[in-house]
């Protein structure tokens, strides 16, 4: 009897894990960028996510569907951890004597500037949300997970995902006149998007849920 992909991942099959990367690297990278707003940081998160996925491979249930929610959940935790590390690093730097820093004009030449600027416009409003609310927006709206998959990714009850997304929708509407809804106007996530002129430019690249 042929082993399932999940069973092969659990068993440490490197070919299966390579296929997992090929299938979902783009989804993880896009999710990381939406949470960080930085392409370079997203690349780091992508690498760390699959390293962590390999470390945690034994925790994969042999039965089940797509491993995309599992990977996005790991990526969300990686972003949390890297932000905590960045805050500790910044605090350490702030304790050092101040020196005059000349501007690095090379920073202005980073790629994908247009995409980054459009995401930054929306993140001005997203930054006013609580972290758990930002995460459900990224998972349910941008990455298109349903409530159940997002709950598994975040390891929280489905009702918690619903309430967080509801609060996020209300706050985004208040802060930026931006609404989080599905294409038919309902708040149910799935193939969701963010409506509104400021947010339409940062709709995610279409990804196939494998």
UniProtKB/TrEMBL annotation:
Residues 20-88 form the RNA polymerase sigma-70 region domain. Residues 172-210 are annotated as: Disordered. Residues 194-210 have a biased composition (Basic and acidic residues). Residues 121-172 form the RNA polymerase sigma factor 70 region 4 type domain. Belongs to the sigma-70 factor family. ECF subfamily. Keywords: Sigma factor, Transcription, Transcription regulation. The keyword Transcription applies. This is RNA polymerase sigma factor.
């Amino acid at each position: 009897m042929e082993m399932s992909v999940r069973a092969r991942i659990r068993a440490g099959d490197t070919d299966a894990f390579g296929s997992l990367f090929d299938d979902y690297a783009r989804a993880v990278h896009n999710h990381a960028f939406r949470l960080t707003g930085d392409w370079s940081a997203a690349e780091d998160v992508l690498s760390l996510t699959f390293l962590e996925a390999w470390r945690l491979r034994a925790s994969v249930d042999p039965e089940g569907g797509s491993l995309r929610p599992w990977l996005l959940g790991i990526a969300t935790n990686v972003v949390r951890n890297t932000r905590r590390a960045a805050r500790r690093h910044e605090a350490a730097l702030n304790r050092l004597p101040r020196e005059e820093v000349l501007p690095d004009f090379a920073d202005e030449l980073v790629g994908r500037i247009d995409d980054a600027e459009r995401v930054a416009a929306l993140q001005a409003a997203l930054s006013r949300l609580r972290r758990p609310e930002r995460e459900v927006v990224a998972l349910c709206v941008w990455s298109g997970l349903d409530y159940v998959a997002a709950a598994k990714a975040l390891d929280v009850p489905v009702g918690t995902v619903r309430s967080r997304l509801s609060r996020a929708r209300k706050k985004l509407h208040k802060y930026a006149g931006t609404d989080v809804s599905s294409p038919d106007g309902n708040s149910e996530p799935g193939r969701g998007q963010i409506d509104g002129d400021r947010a339409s430019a940062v709709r995610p690249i279409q990804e196939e849920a494998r």
